[in-house]
Write a structure and sequence with these properties.
Shape of chain A: globular
Oligomer: heterodimer
Order of helices and strands of chain B: HHHHHHHHHHHHHHHHHH
Number of strands of chain B: 0
CATH topology of chain A: Arc Repressor Mutant, subunit A
Low-confidence stretches of chain B: 142-149, 214-221
Number of strands of chain A: 3
Mean pLDDT of chain A: 88
Strand order of the largest sheet of chain A: 1-3-2
Number of helices of chain B: 18
Helix content of chain A: 40-55%
Radius of gyration of chain B: 26 Å
Number of domains of chain A: 1
Structural class of chain A: alpha+beta
Chain lengths: 102, 364
Amino acid sequence: MGKQLDLLLLSALSSAPAHGYAVIEELQRRSDGVFDLPESTVYPALHRLEQAKLLESEWGEVGGRRRRVYQLTDKGRSALRERRREWTRLRRGIGAAIGEAG
Amino acid sequence: MVRGEIECYLLAFNDVLVAGAERRERILAEVEDHLRDAVESLMAAGSTAGEAELEAVARFGSPQEAAARLGSDPLGRAQQASRSWEARRIAHPVLIPLVIWTPLLAYTLWDFGLSTTQIMPLVLLWVQCKSNLHARRVAGLALGSGVIPRCSERLRRALADRPWIGRVLAVTLTGVYCSWVLLSLHPWFAVILGYYSVCGAAGYWSRLSWYEDHDTSAQRGRGWTVRYRSASAGLRYGSWALALAGPLALTQLAPLTANHLGYALLGLAVFVGISTPPTHRALQWLRGLRPAARFAARLTPLLTLLVINAIGEPALWSLALIVAMLGALMAIQWEIWHSRARSDATRRQLVDRTRAAAGDVTGR
């Protein structure tokens, strides 16, 4: 799940910088509620991506409260493109293997 | 419904999280933000405040699982290890100092006979016992009043109001003792030590941060550095000027120390390493550094001097290396100690908030 979670988080942050809770909400919204992850799994992944320099974060004022806001770095954008390609390949491969049409 | 679930959760989470102070504060702030956002969302969806808090906490997962997912960092692990030592010294506040210092005491007795040499190990033994007993009292395991030597209430209060007395007394007594012992062996050394002790005492007495560090004195505004700013600034700058001029003054003006420039420079390096910087900007810069970096910055003049000496005399490389290694160890220890103190402060805040939240509910 680690790689897929990274892809999901990078995708959720690709449109705009956001804080942790907003990232989770965005994922739920985009997946029509399919991704109901244990919420505490998201922060370790965000921290890991930040350590890998794919994300950067800073304290900012959002909705009248001080929050840690994450955003993609240039390295993060290229990692996102790469992982999207990988995912497309994987999906095609699995689709072909299980006889999925199209 | 019970309120204060978030505070209780944060306290439990804090207790199982293995992280250094900085990372710990960041994680706690993020988790709290998350839980408050979740509560707001749930309340907007129709839940009551109590239900929303319970639901938000449940959705985040147990504190143990959440902390385990975040993993540990080296500073957090070091903090944990130092806590186990803390537990030991609290459990045996007198026994451990006895075990540590008795061999040194025995050695000095064996080597020098009954003399002033025993004062140092005895002072160290006393200081460590006092420190351990204090830690024990702070930890809430107070010994009976008959066991801990206590001064009279009036004297105790006077000392608490003037925290500098103890330190100035300790510095002065140590200086006098060292001078006394060394005077018979190396009179020139005693002159250098005395010179820099005077500089150090003057700088320490007029130090900038003095009344920032002690709330009681600052609140009462009784600090002379606050009342007589110009005089204290003059003394502070004067002490530094005197210290910087020391090597020149001691080798040119004092016949006893004329041939001991190296030791005068050593005195200056120790002074620079220990003293509070004279300007506010320098003090702020120093305080802005990480504790280990601050320690390294303090040690740099001494180490530079030792390295310069070692270049001229290769036999001194071992001394420079030993000082560098000890310095590195102490810098790491300093970092751990600071991180632990900051983490303890964070925990105290969480406990206060949890109690306040519980009181808030009871009061309703």
